[in-house]
Amino acid sequence: MTKPGKRRLLILAALALVVGIGLAVAWQASREQAPSDRLTLFGNIDLRQVQLAFDQSARIERILVQAGDRVEQGELLATLDDRRFQANLAAGRAELDARQAALDRLLAGSRPEEIERLRAVVEADEADLTAARLTYQRTARLARQDMASRQSADQARATRDAALGRLHADQQALALAIAGPRQEDIAEARAGVAAAQSRLQLAEIAVADTELEAPADGIVRNRILEPGDIASPGQPVFSLAPVEPIWARVYVDGQDLGHVRPGLPATIVSDSFPDQPVDGWIGYISPTAEFTPKSVETTRVRSELVYQVHVHACNPQGRLRLGMPVTVHVPLAAEPVDQGADPCP
What is the pTM of this model? Predict the structure, then answer.
């Protein structure tokens, strides 16, 4: 090739390089001036975890699920040896029955038959007193005439006084039977019944606590204790991951934060199912900034301050799992979803 031809090729290459640099600078400037209509974020799947433990201390009798099992709310997961708690429950019921019977007896008052019996006793006491008085009067008159000994008169007077004392005592007993129990005694009996009811409720709660149920739908992540182990309130038996809510924890830099608002729809794509995106929506935006976590891949410098965002996900097939890395696409021009209704189809 002649020298003029080589010079022409060099000029064309230089022009192409200048044009390319110009186009790149213009594209970067336009990107900085006007944001894209879609925001791409990176993060990991997150969800709540529940440590399930018994409220009582006893030996574990049965464990009904394995790690990885899917459980429903209210499903029985494990039980304790409840013999001690059942015995306390039976004692509480017996005590309540006894307290209630004592209160019922006070409220019912004296039986009519008891009152009639006391009336008959009083009438007999009155008759005995009349006879004792007559005997004393005759004996005292004879003693004054020296026809009876002074000792006989004293004995007759003592018999009269004893009859009078019995009459007064039986009259008081009759008055108490008619009046019924004191209000203070009834109040004390009522308090005893209330205390027994409270102890019975505690015994019933203790028996119910020997069964461990799932508080929500979820997946058993870990089975920590086994049958025969001693359970206690501070020792978890299972680690449960509720299936809802589940979200992608992503991070937005300050430049893009103004374009993100709660309720915006989003699409979540995982590396495990790249062709099966999951629908979601932005549910939480952190009010404070933080440095970008090292585990998150971003297109920005890692040292920049970012804001944590939760993108709630619809996960009917359970494809999203704890810790799974995901990519989230947020269309900025979309209308927010109604979070009061169920956003998942």
Answer: 0.60
Phi, psi of 259 (to 5 degrees): -95, -5
Dist. CA 143–CA 298, nearest whole Å:
129
Contact 259, 109 (CB under 8 A): no
Residues contacting 149, CB < 8 A, separation 6+: 143
Q: What is the pLDDT of residues 285-322, one digit of tens each?
A: 888 877 766 555 555 544 467 888 888 888 767 777 77
> For 130-176, how does the pLDDT look when each residue is reduced to its tens digit (9 = 90+)?
888 888 888 888 778 777 788 887 788 888 888 888 888 888 877 77
- Could you tell me the two tokens for 25? 């600078």
Long-range contacts of 207-211 (CB under 8 A, 24+ apart): 207/82, 207/85, 207/86, 207/89, 209/54, 209/55, 209/56, 209/80, 209/85, 210/54, 210/56, 210/58, 210/79, 210/80, 210/81, 210/82, 210/85, 211/76, 211/78, 211/79, 211/80
Short-list 313, 309, 318, CA closest to 345: 313
What distance in Å separates the CA atoms of residue 319 and residue 269, rounded to the nearest whole number?
A: 10
